Amino acid sequence: MNIPLTPVRFLRYAQEQFPRKTAVVCQHNRFTYAEFGDRVARLAGALRAAGAKPGDRIAFLSLNCHRLLEAYFGVLEAGCILLPLNIRLAAPELAYILNDSGSAFLFFEQEFAGLVDSFRHDLRTVRSFHQLDVQPNDVQPINVQPNSVQPNLATPQEDWLSNPTYEQMLASATPYRPDVMEFDENAVAEIFYTSGTSASPKGVMLTHRNIYLHAMSIGLYHHTRYEDVMLHTIPLFHANGWGAAHTITFVGGTHVMLPRFLPEEVFRLVQSERVGALTLVPIMAAALVNSPARSKYDLSSVEWATIGGAASSPTLIREVEQTLGFSCYSGYGLTECSPSLSNAELRPDIQCTLEERYKLQAMTGYAFPGCELRVVDANDNDVARDGQTMGEIIARSDGVMAGYWRQPEATAEAMRGGWFHTGDVAVFEENGYIRIVDRKKDIIVSGGENISSLDVEQTLLAHPAVYEAAVIPASDQKWGEVPRAVVVTKPGSKVSESELIDFCRARLAHYKCPQSIEFCESLPKTATGKVLKRELRKKYQTEIAQ
Question: What are the extents of the domains in the chain?
Answer without folding.
Answer: 8-205, 261-439, 443-539
